[in-house]
Amino acid sequence: MAATTSTAEMIQTDDGVPLKLKLARAERMRKLGAFALVAPLLLFLVVTFISPIFSMLSLSVKNDVIPDALPETAALIQEWDGTGLPSPAVFRAFTIELAAAKKIKIHGKIGKRLNYEISGFRSLVKKTARKLPPPETSDAEIIDAFIAIDKRWGKTDYWNTIKRSSPQYTAFYLLTALDKRMDAQGNIVQAPEKTTIYVHMLVQTVWMSAIVTLLCLILGFPVSFLIATLPTRKSNILLMLVLLPFWTSLLVRTTAWVVLLQTEGLVNDLAVLLGFWDERIQLIHNRIGVYVAMVHILLPFMVLPIFSVMKGIPPSHYRAALSLGSNPLQSFIKVYLPQTIPGVGAGVLLVFIISLGYYITPALVGGPKDQMLSFFIALNTNVTVNWGLAAALSVVLLAVVMVFFTLYNRLVGIDNLKLN
Fold it and tell me: What pTM did the predictor assign?
């Protein structure tokens, strides 16, 4: 090996450059050329996909409303020990900065941010902005002037809330997403029971996704086996039928189930006609409707990976097991089934992860108790406009996906997901 390297270093090209150096340059240029070809795509992904995601997730810890609108108040209140009431300097700074915020009409944002922690804080801020004490109020009188506006300014909890909301970054949204909160002493405690909904919704989301994945596997495996073992002409027709739902909008397919599953819908008509049940039953706006619609929509994502693997399994393996004395069931379980694990793993992982983030189908077909965590992400984004909490819920959901992905990788292995 050393002799070969020495020879390569000694050999020179026509221009007198060592062959080894020339080869290194050529390899470097080849890599640069390959990178140049994919650079536009990488740039497109960074600008349109990766960057917006990180920007959204950063909102889960970003806390710029109070520090930007009340910078001096935020700085001074950090020196307060959290007992009693803050110093008159804090009250005076708050007076000046709240008056300035009212002039540019951002005092509503201040109240909205504080209202996340204590209900009624928004109306308190607006009320105070209208009745602020005059600038000439002395330090000895300014605290009493605030309490005269509203007695709540004499309570420590309200000022502690402003103090907790003053740093540029906060764990408030992430704690809320986990049904936790921070008390006046800075300890993480359980939130009041009437506000603890997000952990329950997270567990419900995982459970519903697991049920949908299991149903898709039970229905999709036989279909994949049938398509993979039929003659090409017939299997192509069945495969086209599997792909047919992709030609229709997700919203249209979900709306179609709303029509089919309603009390006076076609499913109830046929069931009563055929004697499956005597009276019409509720099949929509409940968990049954959600499962039916989600399984219908996600079933192709289970069938296609499994079919791709089954198509690459040589039929001779199954026949060889039969010829060696195994019965058909033993041959299928011990020889054929283990070879389908990569496809089953890919389908299960794909369907489960897609199910975790589903929103449209549960929102249209399910009832109030059948919503998933994505519903609350959309609610906080579009209705309450609480981007911080929406981002925190997204972080929690992403963390759950990564946990299951890591667990799956340890149990099955990502390498086994390579389809033939």
Answer: 0.80
